[in-house]
């Protein structure tokens, strides 16, 4: 009589040791405090909610706050913890989203100020990146450097005129989506390629693009 081996193969050590983010699975209750760029979950488990962005299957915080998980909707969000918005100063490094691109300026909605306390910033006033402040070299078409929805890291150069610059190598677009199918763009040969539709796009990139490091 033939004997069938019913032993179940052991999972590889790589699978069992895979580290998952430290998340409190509680409905609408705050858990750990996170900073912009912190890894907080994966898209296989959660939908990306307010104060977050997704990249290559991972979910990152887009602002300083508390991680909130809604079990019913399977959505993970980051809720601000500051009650009084801080004042933006010249020289501050800020994180924001491109909300409009015009001929000579890109409009940025700032979500947080990078610094010793990773200050949260909430305001209806938007800042601008003038075409002359995008990078050191000449920029002919601003729409090739920024696109609607891009998450950018920039430096404040004028608080009265509310101007930003991305000329430094560490500044620029941190995450971006395909303008055709809205898939997350990935780095390939110093350009961005959409893994979904194959479209190649250009941006003024931060050297930290796609790393989750702010």
- What is the H/E order? HEEEEEEEEEEEEEEEEE
Backbone shape: globular
* H/I helix tally: 1
Q: How would you classify the helix and strand content by structural class?
A: mainly beta
According to CATH, what is the class of the largest domain?
Mainly Beta
Tally of separate domains: 2
The CA-CA distance between the termini, in Å, is 64 Å
Strands side by side in the biggest sheet: 8-9-11-13-12
Largest sheet: 5 strands, mixed, barrel
- The CATH homologous superfamily of the largest domain is called Nucleic acid-binding proteins
Indicate the CATH architecture of the largest domain: Beta Barrel
The level of helicity is under 10%
CATH third-level topology of the largest domain: OB fold (Dihydrolipoamide Acetyltransferase, E2P)
Low-confidence stretches: 1-19, 22-30
- Report the portion of residues in β strands: 35-45%
How would you sum up this structure, described in words?
This protein is mainly β. It contains one helix and 17 strands. The strands form four sheets. The protein has a five-stranded mixed barrel with strand order 8-9-11-13-12. Mean pLDDT is 81; it is low at 1-19 and 22-30.
């Amino acid at each position: 009589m033939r004997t069938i081996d019913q032993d179940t193969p052991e999972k590889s050590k790589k699978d069992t040791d895979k580290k998952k983010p430290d998340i409190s699975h509680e409905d609408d209750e705050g858990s750990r405090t996170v900073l912009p760029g912190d890894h907080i979950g994966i898209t296989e488990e959660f939908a990306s909610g307010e104060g977050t962005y997704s990249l290559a299957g991972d979910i990152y915080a887009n602002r300083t706050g508390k991680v909130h998980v809604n079990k019913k909707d399977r959505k993970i969000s980051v809720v601000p913890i500051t009650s009084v918005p801080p004042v933006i100063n010249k020289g501050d490094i800020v994180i924001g989203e491109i909300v409009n691109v015009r001929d000579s300026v890109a409009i940025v909605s700032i979500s947080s100020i990078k610094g010793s306390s990773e200050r949260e910033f909430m305001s209806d006033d938007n800042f601008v990146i003038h075409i002359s402040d995008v990078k050191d070299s000449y920029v002919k078409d601003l729409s090739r450097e920024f696109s609607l929805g891009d998450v950018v890291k920039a430096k404040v150069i004028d608080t009265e005129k509310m101007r930003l610059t991305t000329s430094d190598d560490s500044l620029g677009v941190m995450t971006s989506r395909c303008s055709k199918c809205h898939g997350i763009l990935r780095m390939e040969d110093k350009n961005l390629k959409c893994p979904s539709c194959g479209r190649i796009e250009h941006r003024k990139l931060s050297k930290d693009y796609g790393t989750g490091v702010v």
